[in-house]
Design brief:
By secondary structure, the chain is α+β, with helices and mostly antiparallel strands. It has helices at residues 23-33, 49-60, 98-107, 126-134, 165-175, 191-203, 234-247, 262-271, 306-316, 335-342, 372-384, 395-398, 404-410, and strands at residues 2-8, 13-18, 40-43, 64-69, 72-76, 109-113, 138-142, 145-149, 157-159, 181-185, 206-208, 214-218, 227-229, 248-254, 275-277, 281-284, 295-297, 321-326, 346-350, 353-358, 366-368, 388-392, 414-420. The chain binds uridine-diphosphate-N-acetylglucosamine (UD1) and phosphoenolpyruvate. Phosphoenolpyruvate binds at residues 24, 93-95, 117-118, 120, 307, 372-373, 400. Phosphoenolpyruvate binds at residues 23-24.
């Protein structure tokens, strides 16, 4: 038996949608919280399956996760034990790798099997491991698990060959208790990194320079509990903005930080989407039927986010002319294009680019959410397609979109889940 999402397309969307807390921040903030010796309250936690998997992992370590309300949790490490992390939940998400930095930083020892997450082509973690080694840890790989050990972590200068989000956060967490100063050069600048450093600093860490490409961490002895509110999810926001541009007459997207979305908003203006950008909201007013193709190149923040190119591709099937999307982060991240072609799109993929020829009418078809943002792309395509679209492998979508069906239904979409025979 399999659960699928079904969407009947061509219903015009209207209304207001509220964006949840950022998945990519949350999945780092939760492991970061175990570095504290007192209770950490995190507010704005999205109800997504990645958070459920992390809660399972925390409980496996003896950490108490107290759910105070729908979006507020308290993480208490009083009875925590540093056990090997071999639970099957580790491979359900990418971010389980943050327990490497957090456990190494807290105990000088971590044992954890390979993380999972979306397959976007190879996703090595060599830069994380090199960073831990530079701080004085030994890294061994045995029976499918990484074992990290350090008698003492000592601050040092670490240059990242690639400005990796995960490596920047993981090294930051490992270094919070290291002796002396750690400097991360060519650090990633994504807003989620700033959010994690903000939490760690509230806990008592001494991290400066986040948001630039040089981060310094001066080691401290003790971290304590605190309260933290997660930033809004810029990728969920981007998904609803693109979706509104493609399928709406009038939609307000609330609880966003527009500055996190500048590369997308400027592209949408270029395409011909009518929008008004407020302090914490974007009002999308649709388009006059005359939207133009554009070219996109994904880049580290503040460049165009790789996570947004997939949802945007659904809209680009409706623009006039050829759009070229070039991936510089995950050069194989194009599986959504083959699924869109099953719905009537005309896209050629020549890695590292997709060539989208539009406009093409889309029609309902059986498609597969091969990864999280491919799923988001297919939802948008389903909303503008003629007929009913059936999306398989929706567990990917549930990793990162809180109450997708509820939010879309409130906007007037016809979307529902069905259990079908395998
Ligand atoms: C949980 C989370 O936050 N996930 C995001 C995070 O993933 P993640 O943190 O895994 O992505 P990275 O920023 O690390 O990856 C960027 C690039 O660096 C390469 N690389 C990375 C680490 C490493 O040790 N060696 C190496 O070669 C990757 O293969 C990729 O080509 O950033 C990606 C890029 O913005 C997003 O698509 C993901 O949604
Ligand atoms: C690729 C993504 O997530 P993860 O890194 O968790 O697989 C994503 O959020 O688009």
């Amino acid at each position: 038996m399999e659960k699928v999402i079904k969407i009947e397309g061509k219903h015009k969307l209207r209304g207001t949608v509220r964006i949840s807390g950022s998945k990519n921040a949350t999945v780092a903030l939760i492991p970061a919280a175990i570095l504290a010796n007192g209770p950490v309250t995190i507010c704005g936690v999205p109800n997504i399956s990645d958070v459920e998997s992390l809660s399972v992992l925390l409980q496996d370590l003896g950490v108490v996760v107290d759910i105070k309300s729908s979006d507020r949790i308290v993480i208490d490490t009083t009875d925590m034990q540093n056990k090997p992390m071999i639970h099957e939940a580790v491979s359900k998400l990418r971010a389980s790798y943050y327990f490497m930095g957090a456990l190494l930083g807290k105990y000088g020892h971590a044992e954890i099997k390979m993380p999972g997450g979306c397959y976007l082509g190879p996703r090595p973690i060599d830069l994380h491991l090199k960073g831990f080694e530079a701080l004085g840890a030994t890294v061994t790989y045995d029976h499918g698990a990484y074992i990290l050990d350090a008698k003492e972590l000592v601050g040092t200068k670490i240059f990242l060959d690639i400005s990796s989000v995960g490596a920047t956060i993981n090294i930051m967490m490992a270094a919070v208790h290291a002796k002396g100063r750690t400097t991360i050069e060519n650090a990633a600048k994504e807003p989620e990194i700033i959010d994690v450093a903000t939490l760690l600093n509230k806990m008592g860490a001494n991290i400066r320079g986040v948001g630039t490409n040089v981060i310094t961490i001066d080691g401290v002895d003790e971290l304590s509990g605190c309260f933290h509110e997660i930033i809004p999810d810029r990728i969920e926001a981007a998904t609803y903005i693109v979706l509104a541009a493609a399928a709406a007459e009038d939609v307000m997207i609330e609880n966003i930080i527009p500055q996190h979305l500048e590369s997308l908003l400027s592209k949408l203006h270029e395409i011909g989407i009518q929008m008004e950008v407020g302090v914490d909201r974007v009002h999308v007013k649709g388009h006059d039927g005359n939207i133009k193709a554009t070219d996109i190149k994904t880049l580290p923040y503040p460049g165009f986010a790789t996570d947004i190119q997939q949802p945007l591709t659904a809209l680009l099937t409706q623009t006039t002319g050829q759009s070229i999307v070039t991936e510089t982060i995950y050069t194989e991240r194009f599986k959504h294009c083959y699924e869109l072609n099953k719905m009537g799109a005309n896209i050629n993929v020549m890695i590292p680019s997709s060539f989208i020829n539009g406009p093409t009418p889309l029609y309902g078809a059986e498609v597969c959410a091969t990864d999280l943002r491919c799923g988001a792309c297919l939802v948008i395509a389903g909303l503008i397609a003629d007929g009913v679209t059936t999306i398989h492998d929706i567990y990917h979508i549930d990793r990162g979109y809180e109450d997708l069906d509820g939010k879309l239904t409130a906007l007037g979409a016809k979307i529902w889940r069905e259990t079908i025979e395998d």
